[in-house]
Design a protein that fits this description.
The complex is a heterotrimer of chains A (304), B (328) and C (319). With 304 residues, chain A is mainly α. Chain A has helices spanning 9-17, 28-38, 40-57, 59-62, 95-131, 133-147, 151-162, 166-193, 196-203, 208-220, 222-244, 256-263, 271-275, 278-299. Chain A has one domain (32-66, 83-303): MetI-like fold, CATH 1.10.3720. Chain B is 33% helix and 23% strand. Chain B has 12 helices and 12 strands. Chain B has helices at 52-59, 86-92, 114-124, 131-144, 150-154, 163-175, 193-210, 221-227, 245-250, 255-262, 300-304, 321-327, and strands at residues 8-20, 25-37, 41-45, 67-76, 79-80, 97-100, 181-185, 213-218, 230-235, 238-244, 311-313, 316-318. In chain B, helix 7 (193-210) links the parallel strand 7 (181-185) and strand 8. Chain B is globular and about 65 Å long. The two termini of chain B are 41 Å apart. The longest helix of chain C is centred in the C-terminal third of the chain and has 39 residues, at 225-263. Chain C has 319 residues and is an all-alpha fold. Chain C contains 13 helices and no strands. Classes of the chains: A mainly alpha (304), B alpha/beta (328), C mainly alpha (319). At the A-C interface, helix 1, helix 6, helix 7, helix 8 and helix 11 of A face helix 1, helix 6, helix 7, helix 8 and helix 10 of C.
Chain lengths: 304, 328, 319
């Protein structure tokens, strides 16, 4: 997937290939476990990611310096300078510390919208697919309307309108993701609903809510889950991008994207230092890409 | 059309093809030998999984990893074509040795008209020099395979045409470059019975008119009975009986062939005898004769060691202990 | 085909109307008084009162919407607070610049992606395949804005081949070549990730076609691998390939925003960014409205093209 997410790609492919959504097999967790045991690359990626997450969460312990502590003397020090493994920024603050503390925000603004998108979009898609008719038309029309806007511009507009702050960035990204997840889920739900066991359940009088919760969700979940896993990386990049534009976190709080932006003015004098904050963004996206591929292969091989 | 000294068009000797798996390899074609003469139809009969399609694909070298031809020779026009350079082999394909398949619908490019695909073959093999000539030739070919309304069929796409018509079109494509040998892999298996006999008649008339030989692969004895001059019966990758069709059908020697004949309905039989047991597991072949687990006449000797390939009994070659001992 | 197209065009209208509703909603989400937001902090009370009356802001919401929609349909998107010019002309000019950049980036991405994808598929599991897919993974993970900065450092600062930003040179600028020269770095930065996606999709699509039985039949007819590839396999893979290419091109229309900011390319992304800082809400909203219309039409074009190539799509019920 791409930097600055393009969530609409996968559901289009799904819709267009005209293939049935797979039934989630029993033992999915076992299948995932088996896959990761054999796929050394994915396991390594998972391990590295876990390490990064732990380091960021434990920022008070792992951060070598105070991320907000400025100093006038050692500014724009290059990576590898004594005492500052990754150098310092324009205000003399240690970059490594800021990256560690900033990681909490950057990672969260990547994952949170996906979770929200999965829950909200998944719910809409389920309802649309299960009930069909007017419900489906209304929901999918609204989804279409949101698809009328390019993802990036929509997110920017919403974030601008709601005002600065991390919470609004998360909301903006969630709004952008919901339509895609909804489409994926709707398509999977329609396929699943054509299976006979649903007819049987309805015929025997089980109420709709039970059917949805107990039967449908289990079988339909793999498609949106696979999609969401594959999209976490691009969303992290996208979120950092919104921060890059100044829409989210405000200085002096650290965040990978906004750090990149504030260092842009020093590009000429300290090129190496200025591009440091982009490294964790790319690494996180790459790790999630590898992991997402492995998960998707297990959950929904057709999307490959 | 050149032939070897005794009029043999194709001579397969000891052909061996294996599939390389993760744990072990499977030999799907195990030392297959037969000969095909001029204007002859050889029926290669066997159940699914017997290796007959693999044999055909091996002759044309249409196999790719993890399948590989690991032994044997295939003599055509005085050359062992298994050892030809790939490019030279490609010039043979379609031009001198053609192949038609089961399920004609899966064997056409869905995006191009039938006429286009026919013209493409004519132009590629240099049968015609320009499109208009190719177009005319294509029309006459379609008529030759008895496709009514050939002009309309030329412009149609594969999904607009019935299975029987597609098979005729596939035959047209195969015979367009006037090959010496046509390999037909279960050409009628996916068609209605009425269409089946039409296609069989078509193949026979094409064979005579164009003096082609046909390697006809089938699992259906009654179909083989209609077309074959010679017969080779395959089981678990090996040929177990081989000879003139009239002989083999009238006096089957190998227990498997006998069982096959017994399982075919005839006007007089009212009870069909299925063959007991399951096809051999090629990943773990039995130590002795491959058919022993299902053979009503199996001996201890048969279960323990493989019978020698081919003992001649009159007109027929059999791979079976019953005859090996008798023939000593 | 025609009925499918007609259906899709008719479906456009509610979508576009819905888009206007969304933008209208955004106006009212802005904290504070809409008149103040749309006229700027320096506007006088009298001006605001007149404005409110003009736009019917003292009327119930549906009427406000109606009045506003009326203005929009007459291409009146308001006046930019910062520049004191009609929004429509500002947006239109910026849009053309974005279109240029997005088109070049899309072209680059699609060509590179197509090439890599075909190479990878035809040499599956070989070195070329791994290298191509490794590059694709990297390309999709690297943020476009970061790649832009790196390219500036490498090719505009360290080695001064390309300009660091802008669309034209300050001195003697404006020629097509000058503009093209300014395009190179931003197009590369914006196109890398879409190239990766296209490469992956092309590879998957070609592999899927390669598995089909008719490919073996074609080999049996004696055609060479390259003939089969270009005359039969790629055309069969086309519907999927072309769709993803169209989607990427459409995505780029908005996606180049980050790159525009890095390179100060005067497109709508940059316009949006500057307007954020200036609180120039008329421009922000005008951009959203304008882009949504264009985007919807573009998506329609992609869908119609896909339906033209793949008959199966026309018969399925559009979601």
């Amino acid at each position: 997937m791409i930097s600055g997410a393009n969530p609409s790609a996968a559901p289009e492919l799904l819709r267009v290939s005209g293939v049935e959504a797979p039934l989630q097999q029993p033992g999915t967790l076992r299948a995932l476990w088996g896959r990761f045991r054999h796929d050394r690359l994915a396991t390594a990626a998972l391990a590295i990611l876990a390490l990064i997450v732990v380091i960021c969460i434990a920022a008070p312990l792992t951060s070598p310096h105070d991320p907000l502590a400025t100093q006038a003397v050692n500014r724009l020090a290059p990576p590898g300078s004594p005492g500052h493994l990754l150098g310092t920024d324009g205000a003399g603050r240690d970059l490594l510390s800021r990256l560690i503390w900033g990681g909490r925000i950057s990672l969260m603004t990547g994952v949170a919208p996906v979770v929200i998108g999965l829950l909200v979009g998944g719910l809409f898609g389920l309802l649309a697919g299960y009930y069909g008719g007017v419900t489906r038309t209304v929901i999918m029309r609204c989804v279409d309307v949101l698809f009328a806007f390019p993802a990036v511009l929509l997110a920017i507009a919403i974030a601008v309108t709601l005002g600065a702050g991390t919470r609004n960035v998360i909301i903006a990204l969630a709004v952008v993701l919901v339509p895609s997840v909804a489409r994926v889920t709707e398509s999977a739900t329609i396929s699943a609903c054509s299976q006979e066991y649903i007819e049987a359940a309805k015929a025997s009088g089980v109420n709709d809510a039970s059917i949805i919760v107990f039967q449908l969700v289990r079988n339909v979940a793999s498609a949106p889950l696979a999609y969401c896993f594959s999209i976490i990386g691009p969303v992290i990049v996208f979120a950092a991008g919104l921060n890059f534009l100044g829409l989210g976190i405000q200085p002096p709080d650290p965040e990978w994207g906004s750090m990149l932006y504030s260092l842009q003015s020093s590009l000429l004098f300290a090129p190496l230092t200025s591009i440091v904050p982009g490294v964790p963004i790319a690494i996180a996206a790459l790790l999630f890409d590898v992991i997402g591929n492995a998960v998707r292969d297990v959950l929904d091989p057709r999307l490959a | 059309m050149s032939t070897s000294s005794n009029g043999t068009l194709l001579s397969v000797q000891g052909l061996q093809t294996r599939i390389k798996g993760d744990r072990h390899s499977i030999t799907v074609v195990d030392g297959v030998s037969f000969e095909l003469g001029q204007q002859q139809v050889l029926a290669l009969i066997g159940e699914s999984g017997s290796g007959k399609t693999m044999t055909a694909l091996s002759i044309l070298r249409l196999v790719a990893a993890p399948v590989a031809i690991t032994g044997g020779e295939v003599w055509y026009e005085g050359k062992d074509i298994l050892r030809l350079p790939a490019e030279k082999m490609r010039t043979l394909r379609g031009r001198r040795i053609a192949m038609i398949f089961q399920n004609p619908r899966d064997r056409f490019d869905p995006l191009r008209t039938i006429g286009d695909q026919l013209i493409e073959v004519l132009m590629h093999h240099g049968i015609t020099q320009n499109r208009s000539e190719a177009s005319r030739r294509a029309l006459s070919l379609l008529r030759e395979v008895k496709l009514l309304d050939a002009e309309r069929v030329m412009k149609m796409y594969p999904n607009e045409v019935s299975g029987g018509m597609l098979q005729r079109a596939m035959i047209a494509i195969a015979i367009a470059p006037a090959p010496d040998l046509l390999i037909a892999d279960e050409p009628t298996s996916s068609l209605d019975v009425t269409i089946q006999s039409e296609i069989l008649d078509l193949l026979k008339s094409v064979e005579t008119a164009r003096r082609m030989s046909i390697l006809f692969i089938t699992h259906d004895i009654s179909v083989a009975q209609q077309v074959a001059d010679t017969v080779a019966v395959m089981y678990a990758g090996q040929i177990v009986e081989y000879g003139k069709a009239s002989e083999v059908f009238a006096h089957p020697q190998h227990p498997y062939t006998q069982a096959l004949m017994a399982s075919v309905p005839t006007p007089t039989s009212d009870v069909l005898q299925p063959i007991h047991g399951l096809p051999a597991d090629l990943a773990h072949p039995p130590p002795g004769c491959r058919f022993a687990p299902r053979c009503p006449s199996a001996s201890v000797h048969g279960r323990a060691s493989e019978p020698p390939p081919f003992v001649q009994t009159e007109n027929v070659g059999v791979r079976c202990w019953l005859y090996a001992e008798a023939g000593q | 085909m025609l009925s499918y197209a007609a259906r899709r065009v008719v479906l456009l209208v509610p979508v576009l109307l819905g888009a206007t509703v969304v933008v209208f909603g955004l106006i009212h989400l802005i904290p504070g008084d809409p008149a103040g937001a749309l006229l700027g902090p320096t506007s006088s009370d009298a001006t605001r009162a007149a404005f409110r009356h003009d736009l019917g802001l003292d009327q119930p919401l549906p009427i406000q919407y109606g009045v506003w929609l009326w203005h929009v349909l007459h291409l009146d998107l308001g006046i930019s607070i910062a520049r004191r010019q009609p929004v429509i002309s500002i947006v239109w000019e910026a849009f053309q610049h974005t279109l240029l950049l997005a088109a070049v980036a899309a072209l680059l991405a699609n060509v590179v992606g197509l090439f890599l994808g075909i190479v990878a598929a035809t040499r599956q599991f070989g070195i070329a395949d791994r290298a191509a897919m490794g590059f694709a993974a990297l390309a999709t993970a690297i943020p476009s804005y970061w790649l832009g900065l790196i390219l500036v450092v490498l090719l505009a600062l360290k080695v001064q081949i390309f300009p660091t930003g802008g669309m034209t040179s300050a001195i003697d600028g404006g020629s097509p070549f000058d503009i093209f020269w300014h395009l190179v770095l931003p197009a590369m930065a914006a196109g890398a990730a879409p190239a990766g996606i296209v490469a992956r999709t092309v590879r998957a699509s070609v592999l899927e076609v390669l598995r089909l039985d008719f490919v073996q039949a074609l080999r049996a007819r004696g055609f060479s691998e390259s003939t089969i590839l270009f005359r039969h396999i790629v055309p069969n893979a086309f519907p999927t390939i072309l769709t993803v290419m169209g989607l990427q091109a459409g995505y780029l229309l908005g996606g180049v925003a980050f790159v525009e900011v890095v390179f100060s390319w005067p497109g709508i992304g940059n316009l949006l960014f500057l307007s954020i800082g200036q609180r120039d809400y008329p421009v922000i909203l005008g951009v959203m409205l304008f882009v949504s219309f264009v985007f919807v039409l573009l998506n329609l074009a992609v869908d119609l093209m896909h339906a033209a190539l793949d008959p199966r799509v026309r018969t399925s019920v559009a979601a």
